[in-house]
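Researcher: First entry.
Model:
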Amino acid sequence: MAFSHAARQRAILPAVITALAAGSLFIPTSSLHAEAPPEQMSLKQILRKPIYPDLPTLDPQKRRTGSPVPSSVIANPTPTDRLATQVRRCRMFVYNNAKATEDGVNHLMSAFLAKEQNFTSTIASLAPSPQTGEQIMPGALYVLVASMAGSIFSRNRNILLRATTPAAVGLGAAYVVLPYTMKNVGELMWSFEQKSEFVAVNHLRIRGALIEGWKQAKIRSEKTRDWSEEVVKEGRETIERWVRKGQ
């Protein structure tokens, strides 16, 4: 019995020693660290073939620098790529036309607002200043009544007088009743006439002829008045002499 027990202990002891030795090999006592790749590696070791054909290369240097992918790497366009290109072209076409339309509408509205502002400022400039004391509303009624009187006066005349008499009477009444307003209107008409050299030159000629005719008429009227005064004076002196001789 004692011999069998000693033999059994001798048989177990090598197995325990073997198990401890194997455990020391598979269970290290120090921490293990992965080995870093060397800095100088070949390009073939870094490059990896991508899973998808349209993805760029996985070269870390190219991904860091952001360099464009070579054309050889890009595969042929797929139907999805062609559809995306057509959609992009359609979007750019719609965007460009919408932008052009918007710019045209903005330009048109700007021109319309500028014309409206110019028109309102022009109409406002025709009104007389408050310092003159001239009122447009009663004066405009007087001018209208004068024009109607001219039309009534010339209703039994020829067509030329019927067309010109109301305008002439109304214009004369306007210059009498609304002198400052008519002055502003005349300056506005002159600014329009200056845009055409032919009209401006003829206007100046006609105006010069009218002013010269008015001056000559005044001179002749003064001469006629002086002559009539001389005739009346001589006739009165002659009559006085006759009266003295008769006495």
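Researcher: Second entry.
Model:
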Amino acid sequence: MNSPLLNRVFQRLFSHETCSRIRYRRPLGLHEPGRLLRPSRHVSTAKSHDDDSTRESNWQQRTDLFPQDKSADFEKYPMVTADMLRSRKERPKRVKMLTRDFIEDSLYNPNYGYFSKQVVIFSPGEPFDFHSMRDELEFNHLLGKRYTEFEDKLDAISPNETRQLWHTPTELFRPYYGEAIARYLVENYKLSHHPYHDLIIYELGAGNGTLMLNILDHIRDIYPDVYDRTKFKVIEISSALAAMQTSQLSRSSSARGHSDHVEIINKSIFDWDTYIPEQCWVLALEVFDNFAHDSIRYDPFTERPLQGNVLIDNSGDFYEFYTHEIDPVASRFLRVRSIACSQPFDHPLKGSRILRNLKARLPFAANLTVPEYIPTRLMQFFDILHEYFPHHRLLTSDFHSLPNTIKGYNSPVVQTRYQRRVVPVSTPFVQQGYFDILFPTNFEVIEDIYRAMTGKLTRVSTHESFLKRWAYVEDTQTKSGENPLLSWYKNASVMSTV
């Protein structure tokens, strides 16, 4: 669905041309590099593949028809970061930035970011009665019906053809999913901390606040002695969602009883600067997938990495450049991964170097590998856990694979909704704030990096096996024996600190 016609549709829809161009910028001074509803080729005319300077000076764009040369603009436009753009109310022009800063700005800018302004989290209303359902097919039908009813009510108040609506397992399987998390927390708390320490829980990105309430309800009802010592703290970057979470605490007498146990902290986890000496749990459920990534390509002959930048011109169009100047964050990630990972992992340079060189010599072959998206922001999150939460235990769940990803390694799904239909595109360089940019998580790599950076031990399991252990699975079983709680999210994994 990423055709020129579609691009023109979105140009009118969002008053912005959704386009991406790729450039290789010849370095001026080379140096060695120290979220489920689920970019182009170059040719080299170099005479010798062993002569770097000759090859670099002749790389040319081939896929776009008569593309504009933006090299001069790339030299003169200022480099900005997502932090520098936080106070902007309009999307920037005549600037350049790293890929990770573009993604961060697109998703989290307070004034036009996807999570700040566009996202609506689906709530099905009353919990589903799984025991009355014939099978999983009926669950899918009822879910679709409630989706329609939910959006019809929103449109009756304020029609919106570009509403970004998505769901979470917490909402679909309320309260059973939250109760499973609560059992995991309490049982592990009793084994290690009770009764000498409080049960302190930090949740990152609490959405509607449903998981928070389900966990606290279950602890209060089943473990009253633990509830007395429970403190639940939400770290929420979105002001709108933080306000919603606060309002959830006053919607019923049952929820109001939790007020003394809850604190809503409206800030980004990446702005965290408070040392937490206590032992605590950190919940990061479906959070890693929307952490910003850097884009890295490699020279197929020298194997040197190049880092992705995006230029935004005076018209608001996007042009992608790759340079040998690797910034310290991306350079550090590459070093840490190289040292920490105990098992081979997929990346553009995996495989035979001889075959790769032969393929690169073919006519019309690309001068760079396909991009690899590296989770640099996730590495910075581990830094914060290590520095400010030294006694934490992490529980995270996210997607280890995703359908319909764009071209590359560890590449994201980039999609929006228009007239209640999902529209995927093939580049992350699209109108900021209107598109979800959702990455898979390679848990084998991330587990090794987390262990190396924090010194803690971990366990990785499938989403299904985690729930089989901690959920009362009979609560979500249909008459046929099918269980949507277990069969949904087959492409998700759970990692926990042990």
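Model: Note on the second entry: Residues 1-7, 15-66 have pLDDT under 50 and may be disordered.
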